[in-house]
Amino acid sequence: ASCASQKRRRTKSAAPTHEPSVMTSWPAGWAQNVDGTEHVVDEAEQAKVAAVLESRKTPDGAAPAMASSDGASPGTTKWTATKIRDTFVGFFEHKHGHTHWPSSSVVPHEDPTLLFANAGMNQYKSIFLGTVDPSTAMAKLKRACNSQKCIRAGGKHNDLDDVGKDVYHHTFFEMLGNWSFGDYFKEEAIAMAWACLTEEFGLDASRLYATYFGGDPKEGLEPDEEAKALWLKYLPAERVLPGSKKDNFWEMGDTGPCGPCTEIHYDRIGGRNAAHLVNEDDPNVLEIWNNVFIQYNRDSSGLKVLPAKHVDTGMGFERLASILQNKMSNYDTDIFTPLFEEIRALVLSSSDAVALGPYEGRVGEADADLKDTAYRVVADHVRTLSFAIADGAVPDKLGRGYVLRRVLRRAVWFAQRFLHAPKGFVYRLVGKLCEVMGAAYPELVRARDTIETILKGEEADFNRTIDKGAKFFAKKVDELLPKGVKVFSGRDAFHLSGSLGFPLDLTEIMCEERGLTVDVAEYEAALAEEKAKNEAALKKRKAAKSSTADFTMGPEQTAALTSQNVPKTETGAKYSWHQRLAGCRVEAIYLGRGAGPKKDGFVESAPADTPQVGIVLDKTAFYAEMGGQTADSGALLASNAEEDAVMTVEDVQVYGGYVVHLGALAAPVTVGTTLACDVDYDRRSKIAPNHTMTHVLNFALREVLVGGASKHDDEAKCAQRGSFVDDERLRFDFAWDAPLSEAELRAVESICRRQIEEGLAVDARDTPLATALAIPSLRHMKGETYPDPVRVVAVGATVEGLTASAVADPGAYSIELCGGTHLRNTADAVGFVVLDESGIAKGVRRIVAATREKAAESLAAGTAMREYFAGLEALDASTEAAAAELDAGIKKARTMLTEAPLPAADKILGRDKIAALVAGPLKAAQKAAAAKKAQVAAGAFGDLAARADATGDAATAFVARVDFGADAKLWQKLHKTHLSKPQTRSNFFLVVSADAIDGKFVVFATSPDPKLLDAKAWAQAAVDGSGTAGKGGGKAASANFVVPSLEGIDAAIAAAKAHVAASGVALAEA
Question: Nearest 5 degrees, angle CA 938-CA 1057-CA 946?
Answer without folding.
Answer: 30
